[in-house]
């Protein structure tokens, strides 16, 4: 095992978990194979990468990630009012996640926030926007 510290462009193999403040797990690979990424390759948000800088193989830590370093704060511009008729006969309920096509024909998930007979308010913010997160890591290797 190398005793190299994690720095820009380091290849890092790790186990991680992302949890909400109440301890519920959003994502984790502790039960499966470790993940490998290169610092700065865009696989991890910069706030998560920054937390890892200076760590070495064998180290474990839990970091608090504020919304500004994680998935950002909810943006009011990401709340869209859409005509109810565009949903056809679909049964709507608050919290329902629907996949929409974005400008590039990619998939964009939206969450039904509220609706009435004529309009539907859809939240296109990331589900983790505005949330304080716990980032638990165990570094396996650093190259």
UniProtKB/TrEMBL annotation:
Transmembrane segments: none
UniProt xrefs under InterPro entries: PPIase_dom_sf, PPIase_FKBP_dom
PROSITE patterns for the chain: FKBP_PPIASE
Record-annotated PPIase FKBP-type domain positions: 9-72
One Pfam family here: FKBP_C
Secretion signal, residue range per the UniProt entry: none
Entry's Gene Ontology molecular function annotations: peptidyl-prolyl cis-trans isomerase activity
The keyword Isomerase is annotated on this UniProt entry: yes
Protein name as catalogued: Peptidyl-prolyl cis-trans isomerase
Lineage, highest ranks first: Bacteria, Pseudomonadati, Pseudomonadota, Gammaproteobacteria, Oceanospirillales
